[in-house]
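Consortium newsletter contribution from the modelling node. Members have asked for a concrete example of what our holo predictions look like. Here is one, prepared for the 4'-deoxy-4'-aminopyridoxal-5'-phosphate complex that several groups have been discussing at recent meetings.
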Amino acid sequence: MIRLSQRLAALKGYPMAEIPAIKRRLVEAGVDVIDTGPGDADYPPPAEVITTLQRAVENPAMSKYGFQQGLPAFRRAATDWMRRRFGLEFDPVTELLPLIGSKDGLAHLPFAVLDPGDVAIIPEPGYQAYIGGTVLAGGEPYIYPLTARTGFLVELDEAPTELLRRTRLLFLNYPNNPTAAIAPLDYLERTVATCRRHGIVLAYDNPYCDLTFDGYRAPSIFEVSGAREVAVEFFSMSKSFSMTGWRLGWAAGAPHFIQALNRVKSYVDTGPFLAVQQAAVTALDNAERLIPPVVAELTRRRDAAVAALRREGFALESPRGAMYLWVALPEGVGSAQFARHALERHGVVTLPGVGFGPAGEGYFRIALTVSPERLVEAAGRLGAALAEVRGVEVGVK
Ligand code: PMP
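And here is the predicted structure:
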């Protein structure tokens, strides 16, 4: 009998893993499915970025191993962008590392930071790579439930000192997936100060920094003074440029953190595809022109969907960042049950809050990945689904 690792066993299967199969079955049966599940927008990457990729693929040098160094032009474009975007200077060689999507870096950082018994504080609901990397690296996850009470912020000062003493790593993500919360600068200052006091590495996951609305501008963690001592920040090409499947992001931080992550990754991968790095140069060098239309479209989607969902009786905030709506369910309606009913009976894919960890129960997530009209249609169907699910609940009682 083959025995698999206890670390693997500690990672539970995703509760709604069957969603893609149900969706395929419905589509094959002719159902008009609206997919607001994964954060993967329906618009393509910018045309000029696709053209650069096409040309790059023709160049045989781009088919070689990229290794961790990758394409110097990409490192230069990423550090130039950080200078323009945040006013921050990073050395492209020693303070930046290309990643195969930011998930790569988030999941591998714990291998560089944690020893057995070391704690990583994981916000929940949250991106599952945090707990995945922590558990696979042999660390001990401490789940911090994100709730409306704290504005979905991790309040480190509420954690017992004994826990903070054992904590080596904290994951934070603002603008947040899935709650769409944003972090005020004074919160980030407080948190960096606590991390410095306790020697905690702060993994600041920032893939949505450019998807912000109503004039809000999301900061880099490095705008906080002293952050370079403790933070590693993760950026992604996926969301701002719709390059999800191309798999490219980067980590930025002090040379010893970058070197440590580089060492881990040199044992498990050989770097992102060079042609994709070349295409990312076109994207980043033109970010100021390419991103505003995306934000304008997401704003239209957000406004249409928030209004329609409220009309249907759902309770939700209008978010100022990311590309998600985090929608509360009435007391007693299970998120997995609701999401399954909405999909099977009404052809709307959402993600149940519980899919982001037990603390996400009581909510579901809608990704703003389809047109305003489709989101309004989805809201109507979700309203009908809710009425039915509640009807069943009432009938049972
Ligand atoms: N962090 C968060 C919070 C995310 O939502 C995602 C993608 N959904 C990622 C990181 C990873 O993005 P990627 O690996 O595509 O860069």
